[in-house]
Amino acid sequence: MENCLFCKIIEGSIPSNKVYEDEKFLVFHDIQPAAPVHVLIIPKKHIASANELQGGDFALIGDLHKVAQQVAQQLGVADTGYRLINNCGVDSGQAVHHIHYHLLGGVKLGALVGISDSHA
Ligand code: 5GP
Ligand code: ZN
User: InterPro entries given for it (predicted)?
Assistant: First the structure.
């Protein structure tokens, strides 16, 4: 997909700090970490957001959870806990339109659901 930041990271034309890669997924550190552990888990297939998931994509997202489990172990937060976040659409603040899941951990995370002032 042209002009997609995460597709460019997948193809390697934009560098990233990778923590895991297989034929279907890439995991790399977020450039602006919001927690000691903050990685982005993305399918290599370009899907704009959770709203565009269809057919076999749902099984793919199931597999993404396997990757999350493995990466949490690898990064040492499986036992202490972590949060997986998917932002979808304008009100969520989704900035990159290639579906991705934030995996955050390494610190006691705040309330489960946050509504920032900018959204109030
Ligand atoms: P969103 O707000 O779309 O859910 O999350 C997009 C995330 O991508 C943000 O946390 C942002 O810091 C991260 N990000 C944006 N550009 C880059 C980049 O070039 N490299 C990496 N590693 N992360 C990026
Ligand atoms: Zn893409």
Answer: Histidine_triad_HIT, HIT-like, HIT-like_sf
Q: Among the atoms of ligand 1, which is closest to the Cα of residue 32? A: 12
Instruction: List all residues 6 or more positions away from 96 whose beta carbon is below 8 Å from its beta carbon.
Output: 4, 5, 6
In DSSP terms, which residues pair with 39 in a beta bridge? 29, 103
The C-alpha atoms of residue 84 and residue 24 are separated, in whole angstroms, by 18
Q: Whose CA is nearest to atom 17 of ligand 1?
A: 31
Note the helical H segments in 1-120. Answer: 5-11, 57-74
At 100, list the tokens.
Answer: 């991705």
In the structure encoding, which two tokens stand for residue 32, read together? 């602006």
Residue found by looking up tokens 């309330």 in the block: 111
CA 117 to each of CA 21, 32, 114: distance values in angstroms, whole numbers, following the listed order: 36, 20, 10
HSE value, Cβ hemisphere, 13 Å, CA-based, for 32:
1
Ligand 1 pocket by C-beta < 6 Å: which residues?
A: 5, 14, 16, 28-32, 40, 87, 93-96
